[in-house]
Structures are given as structure tokens and as C-alpha cells.
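Internal tracking record. Fields below are filled automatically when a chain is submitted to the structure queue. Please do not edit lines marked as system-generated. If the sequence contains nonstandard residues, flag them in the REMARKS field before resubmitting.
Queue: standard
Priority: normal
Entity type: single polypeptide chain
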Amino acid sequence: MDNFPLKNWIPYKLVNINGQVECHWLDTFDQPFAEPFFDETILKYKTLKGKNGAIASISDLQLLNEWADNLPDVEPTAIIFHISRCGSTLVSQLLATSNECIVLPEVPFFDDLLRLPYQYPGFNADATSGLLKKALKYYGQKKLESEKRLYIKTDSWHIFFYEQLRWLYPTVPFVLMYRKPNEVFNSHKKLPGIQSVPGLIEPCVFGFKNGEETQCNLDEYLATVLEKYLGKYLQIIKNDNRSLLVNYNEGPMPVMQKIAAFTNTPLNNYSLSIMEERSRYNSKKPDEVFSEVAPINIPSCLDNAMELYYLLDEKRKNI
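SYSTEM-GENERATED OUTPUT FOLLOWS
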């Protein structure tokens, strides 16, 4: 492993220079991936100085394929989808307490690759699928001999790339996390995510028809996005027995044990005690004890999303 020339290096962003897509690289040294979101991990690595600190780490995107050969990596154990603000960050943090697990929470480079066809001419799903599979080899590098499992937490809108990801990983368990739409809605009203603001993610990713999103106010737009998430979940769970429905309201430790059983991840008493302690704290701010007050009100724009939620939860209970 030590003889591999790109040991610890990851491709971390794409840059368009006069129509040419450049791939930028980052040395992660021997540091683990531990932060709640991967953009925080990238910022941490950028502050580290080492022998490669002065190297201009830029390549043609296609070299990502060539350099991945013989990379000592861990195959994906599970891919975790979510509708945002539904406990997926805490689940990834609980998994990260184990030195057997590599956890990749919302990696910006994966999003760059999946959305390439929407941003650059000449790219399609076939091309980006090959690039994504190679990129995962860099991110799944073994830094510790104990590392045996690789968990990928997607961005919420990546559920609309389900067919592409399932084709790439036909046997990998998919976890579908969700929550009551009014609770997700209320969280975004307090602190908006980029998926809740029209235009920050290409509308066609969500399945909006041309110009449809411009006819919505902010509340209607967010409500429609949540409706589309839950509708997609219903489509998937109907035909994919390698997918697991998980409701935030089941509680963090029951959710964790359910995911562990579905993905064949053994948990001993020590692992469970560490996870139990971590689950008491805020997923995004590990030093703060977690507390929240669930909203009671359900705005009328959420009527369709709430109906889909109850349909989905009924399916979860009957599986």
C-alpha cells in the first residue's frame, strides 16, 4: 500500500477552464474522514502542510481513470439516501465511531460528477458512471488495516440518480431515510439548504418541467421538492428488495441497529455503547447535547407530501 504513488490523494473538485474540465487533487495524509460533512474535511486537509504542499495538484479529468488501477480500496457496504434533515448525518457520525468503517458524508466531488451532464456538453450518465466508480476507489482507500466497510451518504437530491447508482452497484444495500415533511420543512425554514432554494440545483434534477419551478413561491418550491423525494422513494421500494426504509422517528439507536442488520455490519456491546453516547449529541455540533421541539403545524402546501409520507410509512411497517 505504501508504494502506491497516489496513496492518500483524492480528487476533490472539478473546475471549468475555457471549456476544459480540470480535476483538482488533495493530499489527505493519514488523517481519517471524521467530520459531519465532507466539505469540512476538505477544509481541514487544506490547512495541513506536508512534503507535497507546494505541488500544483491539477490533472485532466480522464487521468482519474488511469491512476486508479491497483488502488487498495474498500468496496461499498451501503449507500445512504435521505430527504435532508432526517437523521442521516447522525447515522454517518455513529458509523464513523468504528475504526472498521470509512464514512463518506456528502462528498462534493461525487455531486460534481453526477451533475456533469447538466453543466458540461459532451458528458452523459455512462461517462459519469465510470468516473464515479473510479473516484470511489480513491475515497475508499484503506488508511488503517482495520478498515473493512465503506458507507456513502449522498446529497439528498442524489435519489434522482437512483437508476444510475443502482446500475453501478446492483447488490449494494441502499438505505432510504426520511422524516415527517413538516419537520423537514420547518428545519429548512430556520436554516435553508441549497435544495430548498430554486436555481441552486438544476430544476430538471428534481424533475421540474421547463420553468415550472419559477411559478412557485419558496414554501411551495420546498414542499414540491419534498413531495418528489417521497414519490421517488415509493417507486424504489416497490421494486427494489435491496433497499431499506428508515424513519427518523424510530430513534437513533433503533435506526442504527436496523441499518447494521440490513448491511451485515456486526455491532458488539462496546460499539453500541460508543454509539449510544454519541447519539446524545448534535449530529452537526458534536459538543452540544441534542434537543429539539417538533413543529405541530402543517402548512397546506405540504398536503401532498404528507399523504405520500403516510403511504411510505405504512409500507415500512408492513415490510
